[in-house]
Amino acid sequence: MKHLLKKNLWTLFYILLGMGLVLLMLISYMQYKNVEKDLRSELAYLSKSTSEATNHYFIQQEILLNILDKHIFEDEGIKDKDHVRRLFRNLLQMNPALAGISISDPEGDIVLLSKTCNPDELHNLKHSKESCSAFEKALKEKGMVIGRAFYDKAINEWILPLHKAVRDDNSKVIAVLSLGLHLSSARSIWKAYTDSGTELEIFLDDSWYRIYHSDKPPGKYPELYSKPVTKQQRYSEEGGEAIETEANTTFEELKKSKKPSVVLFDSPNGESYIISWQYVPDYKLWIHYHMPTGKIFDKVSNYWIINIVSFLFIFIVVYYLFYTINAIEKRKSKELLYQAMHDNLTKLPNRMYLQKKIDSWIYDGAPPFSVGFIDLDNFKNINDSIGHHYGDLILVEVAKRLKASMPKGTMVIRHGGDEFIMLCHEYDIDKLSENSRLLIEAISQPYEVEGMEFTVGVSIGISRYPLDGTKLFELLSAADIAMYHAKRSKNSFAFFTSELKAMRNRYSIMEHELRNAIEKDELTMVYQPQIRKDGTLHGVEALIRWENSRLGQIHPEEFIKIAEESGLMPKIGRYITKHAIEEIGSLQKKIGAEFCLAINISIRQFNEKGFVETFIETIQTGAMNPSHIVIEITESLFIEELEFILATLQKLKEYGLNISLDDFGTGYSSLGMLKKLPIDELKIDKSFIETLLVDNESEAMVKAIITLGKTLGFSILAEGVEEEEQFTRLNELGCDLYQGYFFSKPMPLNELYHFIDSQNMESGCSV
Ligand code: C2E
Ligand code: CA
Ligand code: CA
């Protein structure tokens, strides 16, 4: 889940971004709708206020007309014409909105006129096209009637006429009072009810003449005032249709309602508006507003700017957050990748790194290169004897030296433990040999770790691409085989060869077969007599034999080494001890004589936990006398931790066992060490006996060993005695015991029985 999230971090970011955008749009849309709603109510309110103000304005005019009616007329007609003229003059002076006042008879002829009007331009009101319809209406109605606005030549101005019929007691019209209002003065009142962008128009009902247009004054647009608005114009241009479809009402219904109807309207010129229509019933007027929807944008844009700024801010913060998380994750995964591909201790790249990078070495047409498999010699001993802490410090230093002594471009890998791998562009055998020698020299230099000095050996196996393999595992396996070969000589290097491969194959098969050798009953014991000076039997050395169905007879030296290397030695060792003791124990019982039994103990058995206890237990089960058992060890044992070896030997000795130092003279035991060891016998190595008679140096060596051994109180056994002359010479030199083909080859138990029987040998163990 976490991994998935990491992978999709940016996807998550884009999802959030998308959701944020959707939210932004949603909020913005809602704000738009809110502003639109506000503007609609604002327009409704405006319309209502306008209608009230208009009503109020015309009530004032009507009151004026009523007052005139009262003052001027008696039942039959005008009281006093001069008085009326004075009244007109006063009124016109007091009320600047008034352009002129007239009184006409019911037939439309002017009877009396204020001085502001030019009498030459006067026409009969009933017949003039501008006033006829309003005049006719005034004759019929009780209240004041508003006429269409027109340019009055008598006054030389645009006026709005108002007519009111004067009636006698029988309601018969006796005259018509008319007021001409300066249209501009009415305009100035309505002007207060519009703001920028919003248009106000006022129409007369029925005739549908426009008496006011806020943006288009009559002086400039006379045609707007001199022609009525057709039904078609009203519906399509002035939003009548929208009123019907959106507000679901009609002009007729609106006449009954006192409220304005406000709707959205898309005009044919492509603009869209919020419009309102309201009827003023007292004076039969229509108040009509146009507010462009652009106003909504003007108002909402502030919110939108805040939205966008907030969104951008949040977006930047979130982006920064994601960016940081991503950067941390990237760095973490980079670190993890580095850690996964590098060894913690030496900081060298590891096997995983090698796997990853091998494609840059192996590809079609890649130049040849070499692979070095490097293994430190006996590094385990350093770890075991001085502890892992020092072992680690040495490994770090080894890694440094490896890097320093290789040519540029070499890849050095820690393969694990004390193993390293190198990929080097060098291919030439001579140069590689030279490099290897230098490397061995560099690694073999003493290491000073926390005041202590150590030396470490190294074995190098080399394989070459493409000669020894074209795949990494083939090259590594080849280098490994070569390394194993080099390991035999220690501190050396070897190139991979097909012979080595064959050897390695045989080794593998042998190891495999050896694992089942005990179960398949392929292991047997043979015994080689050890003879005293006088020819009597001193004892026998138990030697193992392995006859395998696939491989035939295998030399013990070969398979013992494999057993040691593959960890099989303790198991095989237990088998040897058990069988040798059982067989020789029963033989001794059978012939009623006692002689020594020498058993070879490998270094690997010695190191095994509980070795001493198991060994003693086996002797007890086999019911052999411990003093008749000789343990053969080699000097190689002393490479191991000496204290531990000495303690083990001491325990064996205390139990009454004898200890013999095998192959003596080939190793490197010092005189000082020999003195410390609880041993009973020295076995001169057969290589000295072989050349005893032909090589003076060998003779000198044998002499020295005998003298040394005697001085330290050990008995001396010579092995590999093949000729009588050798026996004679050794005898002269003071050797105590003899073993070799001259007396007998190693043989199975039944042959040993016959050997002892036929020789009728005296026997007894006294090492
Ligand atoms: P080693 O312990 O030095 O055993 C003596 C070897 O010398 C034996 O070889 C024996 O057959 C051989 N030998 C005896 N007399 C003569 C002679 O006159 N001339 C010649 N040329 N050789 C003679 P083998 O049995 O082949 O064993 C070889 C090595 O294998 C042994 O050397 C020992 O290191 C190892 N080995 C054999 N059996 C055992 C065993 O049971 N346990 C252990 N740990 N190692 C064993
Ligand atoms: Ca031996
Ligand atoms: Ca030996």
How do the strands line up in the largest sheet? 19-20-22-23-24-25-26-27
Q: State the end-to-end distance.
A: 76 Å
CATH architecture of the largest domain: Alpha-Beta Barrel
How helix-rich are the residues, as a percent range?
40-55%
**Unreliable runs:** none
Give the CATH class of the largest domain.
Answer: Alpha Beta
> Looking at CATH, which topology of the largest domain would you report?
TIM Barrel
Small ligands present: ligand C2E, calcium ion
How would you describe this structure in keywords?
27 strands, 48% helix, Alpha-Beta Plaits, binds calcium ion, Beta-Lactamase, 26 helices, eight-stranded mixed β-barrel
Could you explain how this protein is built, in words?
With 767 residues, the protein is of the alpha+beta class. It contains 26 helices and 27 strands. The chain has 4 domains: 75-186, Beta-Lactamase, CATH 3.30.450; 187-296, Beta-Lactamase, CATH 3.30.450.20; 351-496, Alpha-Beta Plaits (2-Layer Sandwich); 512-759, Alpha-Beta Barrel (TIM Barrel), CATH 3.20.20. The strands form 5 sheets. Strands 19-20-22-23-24-25-26-27 form an 8-stranded mixed barrel, surrounded by 4 helices. Strands 1, 2, 3, 4, 5 and 6 form a 6-stranded antiparallel beta sheet that branches. Strands 8-7-11-10-9 form a 5-stranded antiparallel beta sheet, with helices on both faces. Strand 15 (447-449) and strand 16 (452-454) form a beta hairpin. Helix 2 runs antiparallel to helix 10 and helix 18 packs parallel to helix 20. It is rod-shaped. The protein starts with a helix and ends in an 8-residue tail after the last helix. The protein binds ligand C2E and calcium ion (2 copies). Residues 541, 600, 632, 662 line the site of one calcium ion (CA).
